[in-house]
């Protein structure tokens, strides 16, 4: 089984509150054509995992961890061989870990005929990552609310080309949110749906805000943060003139 694990952009992100150690968010996520590739096949015994990115080629990889949990929870006695080919930049805010985890969950559910319930999807999403439920739902564009498990489709024919700008620093999401101080903004999710307003609360007091300002000044284009970063994006096909690493992507 060969699977394309698509990444995402946040077109809107608002921090509402913090409850039970989870930040309560309102987001609009859209799938983009940048993707990792998973190759998964059943075997007679044990879990075998390999990743093309050396730093992720170990038993701490989220793909291995969710696979191990599923094997334990469903008492699977056979095995599986999983190969992960990484193309989505690490710690970039593009949902790489979450989409890899979600597509692994869906593949194992299908391969082993596990008939996972919504509650199982919800619990595994809460345990392993905020964006996992969005990817499990396979929606092209959706509102993602509360603790990330409330995913609602948006009926908009949203098509767009983006230029992703990948800085030479990374942002670990868990570390970022452990130190994040909530900044209240007046924007609502309807500002995007009704007026196409792109917004991300996390940009306001981001630890790399000065670097992001330099990027805007250099490329002379408005940039937007996806997730907690490090990646930012601009609307359209922007010529960066090799000043920054960039990738052209589009919605699916």
Structure overview:
The protein is α+β, with helices and mostly antiparallel strands. It folds into two domains: 152 residues, Ribosomal Protein S5, domain 2 (2-Layer Sandwich); 90 residues, GHMP kinase, C-terminal domain (Alpha-Beta Plaits), CATH 3.30.70.890. Helix content is 28%, strand content 33%. It contains seven helices and eleven strands. Helix 1 packs parallel to helix 2. The longest helix has 16 residues. The two termini are 21 Å apart.
| Series of secondary-structure elements, N-terminal to C-terminal | EEEHEHHHEEEHHEHEEE
Question: Number of helix segments?
Answer: 7
Number of strands: 11
**CATH classification class of the largest domain:** Alpha Beta
Give the topology, please:
Layout: E1 2-19, E2 22-43, E3 47-51, H1 62-73, E4 79-85, H2 96-111, H3 118-128, H4 132-137, E5 141-146, E6 150-153, E7 161-166, H5 173-179, H6 189-195, E8 199-200, H7 209-219, E9 224-225, E10 232-235, E11 245-250
Parallel strand pairs: 1-8, 3-4
Antiparallel strand pairs: 1-2, 2-4, 2-5, 5-6, 7-10, 7-11, 9-10
Helix pairs in contact: 1-2
Summarize this, please?
The protein is an alpha+beta fold and 252 residues long. The protein contains seven helices and eleven strands.
Short descriptors:
252 residues, alpha+beta, Ribosomal Protein S5, domain 2, 2 domains, 7 helices, 11 strands, globular
């Amino acid at each position: 089984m060969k699977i394309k694990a698509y990444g995402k952009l946040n077109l809107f992100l608002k921090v509402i509150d913090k409850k039970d150690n989870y930040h309560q968010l309102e987001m609009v996520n859209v799938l983009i054509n940048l993707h990792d590739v998973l190759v998964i096949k059943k075997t007679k015994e044990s879990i075998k995992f390999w990743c093309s990115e050396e730093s992720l080629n170990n038993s701490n990889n989220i793909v291995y961890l969710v696979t191990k949990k599923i094997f334990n929870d469903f008492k699977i006695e056979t095995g599986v061989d999983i190969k992960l080919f990484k193309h989505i930049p690490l710690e970039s805010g593009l949902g790489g870990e979450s989409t890899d985890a979600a597509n692994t969950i869906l593949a194992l559910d299908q391969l082993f005929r596990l008939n996972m319930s919504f509650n199982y999807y919800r619990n595994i999403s809460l345990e392993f990552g905020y964006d996992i439920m969005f990817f499990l739902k396979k929606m092209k564009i959706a509102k993602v609310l509360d603790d990330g498990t409330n995913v609602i489709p948006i009926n908009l024919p949203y098509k767009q080309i983006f230029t992703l700008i990948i800085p030479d620093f990374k942002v670990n999401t868990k570390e970022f949110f452990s130190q994040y101080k909530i900044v209240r903004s007046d924007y609502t999710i309807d500002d995007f749906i009704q007026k196409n307003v792109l917004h991300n609360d996390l940009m306001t007091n981001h630890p790399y805000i000065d670097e992001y300002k330099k990027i805007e000044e250099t490329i002379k284009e408005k940039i937007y943060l996806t997730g907690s970063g490090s990646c930012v994006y601009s609307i359209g096909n922007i010529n960066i003139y090799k000043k920054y690493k960039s990738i052209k992507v589009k919605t699916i």
